[in-house]
Amino acid sequence: MNAEVGSPMVCQINLVVRSVAASVAFYRRLGLVVEEAAAPEWVRHHATVVMRNGVRLELDSRAFARDWNPGSRAGEGVSGGVLFFGVDTRGAVDTVFERMTAAGSPVQKAPEDAFWGARYAILEDPDGNAVGIMSPMEPSRRFAPPRPPESPT
């Protein structure tokens, strides 16, 4: 392991869901505090739970998942989740991505700076599960999100 990169840790889990509203209701019943999207046009596409340990659970519609992960196969009989591992820096995203792709890991999303202020990439594990690599979110790196998807799912 490259000492500059450090050991990745789980920082975020994205669940691609059929209905964000139904998922919000379920996780609230479970006792989680769910933050719905601030903009009304996003409520049907995204919600966030920040756990006490800092791990984020992101609930995304299939349409929104296709925006941030064009390689997503959610809805094709493949799991709709993405297991994200946090790394310490934006550069570490690229370093880990290069190491993994050099070893033959399939790519769903090449490294990119995201509107929420992090840098991320998404690969596939040997079973085709989506595995993300993400830097910390930096408020100074945030920019306006894209338009919400047209489709409600």
Q: Approximately how much beta-strand content do the residues carry?
A: 25-35%
| Biggest beta sheet summary | 8 strands, mixed
Q: Oligomeric state of the chains?
A: single chain
What ranges have pLDDT less than 50 throughout 5 or more consecutive residues? none
CATH topology-level name of the domain at 81-106 and 114-140 = 2,3-Dihydroxybiphenyl 1,2-Dioxygenase, domain 1
CATH superfamily of the domain at 81-106 and 114-140: 2,3-Dihydroxybiphenyl 1,2-Dioxygenase, domain 1
Number of helices: 3
Q: Radius of gyration in whole Å, from Cα? A: 15 Å
* Spatial sequence of strands, sheet with the most strands: 2-3-4-1-5-8-7-6
What is the global morphology?
globular
Q: How many strand segments?
A: 8
The first-level CATH class name of the domain at 81-106 and 114-140: Alpha Beta
Helix and strand succession? EHEEEHEHEEE
Q: How confident overall, as mean pLDDT?
A: 87
Relative helix content: 10-25%
CATH architecture of the domain at 81-106 and 114-140: Roll
Computed structural class: alpha+beta
Distance between the termini: 40 Å
